[in-house]
Structure formats: C-alpha cells, structure tokens
Amino acid sequence: MGIDKNGEMKDSFEPGIDILAKQTIFTEGARGSLSEQLKDKFGLADESPSIQHYGIGLKEVWQVADNNPHFQPGLVQHTVGWPLSQDVYAGSFMYHAEPNLIHFGLVIGLDYKNPYLNPYEEFQRLKTHPELAKIFEGGECISYGARVLNEGGYHAVPQLHFPGGMLAGCSAGFLNVSKIKGTHNAMKTGMMAAEAIFEKHMKGEEIGKYSFHEYQEKYKNSWVAEELYQ
Questions:
Q1: Is there a single domain that holds both residue 160 and residue 47?
Q2: Is the dihedral of CA 14, 16, 17, 18 positive or negative?
Q3: Which residue ranges does the record assign to the ETF-QO/FixC ubiquinone-binding domain (predicted)?
C-alpha cells in the first residue's frame, strides 16, 4: 500500500506483513498478488502443459415477484452465444433458489479482441432476452458483484508446493470451467493441503521450508483432479 506507478514509496506507504509461519497455504483467489509472485519465483507453472487464462464474472442476486409463474426453485440454466459474438468466449448461468431468489451471472473470457466491448453492458443486455426477461419481471436486484475467474482448467494447474508453502483454491486455478463452479474444489484442496501438513507434523518431522510433494499427490489422486480432467 502506498506505492506509486514507478515503485516509489508515497507518504501513505504502509509496510507489508511479515509471514513467519513454517508453512503458509495461499488461497488468494484468481491471479492473487502473492501467488503470482510465488509462481514466478519458484517456476511453478513452467511444467504446465497450458498457460492459465482468465475471465470476468459478473453476478446479480434478484428477489423475484411472489406471483411469477416462471420461477422454479432448484432449476439451473446455462446459456451461450447472444448477446456476444461467436469470437468471444462467454456463457451465463441462472440458479433458481428458495424461497424466491435468482442467482444470475455472465462470464466473459478476457481474451476478447474488441476494445470497445463492455462486459457490464453485455450483462445488462442479456437480461432483455424474452426467455430471461420474464423471470426478472416485477423483481428486484438485491445484490451484485464481479470477480476474475481462472479458465485454464486441468492442464493449466501449476506445481502446488514450494519451500514453506502451497497453493490452493483459485490461486492454483481449480475452477471447473464447464460448470462455472469452484467453491467445492477450493474447500477440498485447502483441506488436502492442511492434511499434508498435519500428517507430517504428527510424525514429528520438521515442516519448516519443506516442499510438500505429498499435497501434489493427494491432488492427483483426488476427485478434484478427476473432475477437472473430465
């Protein structure tokens, strides 16, 4: 905090926090600032068959009208195509959730070529499609947000361990792109990283500066790797 564009300290500069743990599990989300530095420092992505790439995800939560006949709790809908052109990698999701909520979002790959493309405007335009507009009619948007998403998939997952730490969740790119979901994978990989540390610690072995290849093996043999590979 407090660094200008030239890397010089401003009056508002605050030093970073020293991380003194013997092992640190980094779960910063997609393209985390520390995670990306660690990948470069230790060459964690050097052996990956594919490079990681990213998308922007926009989401709104709607409270639908009580008498809306098109609301179906439990229904999951996905779309591709309109309003984006064929050369833009994109898709939307809509989850009908009890008691009367719609979770609606659009994901657009950040490799689009048109510099005038506005993801937010495309998201709003998508809601005018007749099949979607009838679900929003009479409703109210009660929350919204946006975030960067990993889209590299199975072949872009880097080496997960290095001396003194590990990568988990979206810091390592565990989003299931086809299902547009990754919370379950983030939770599971965090658990596997913690288990690797715990198991070695309980054996009385030193864990400081150790590079946990055991975590990599746990991932390779888990349903997370199997799901991403599919």
A1: yes
A2: negative
A3: 54-149
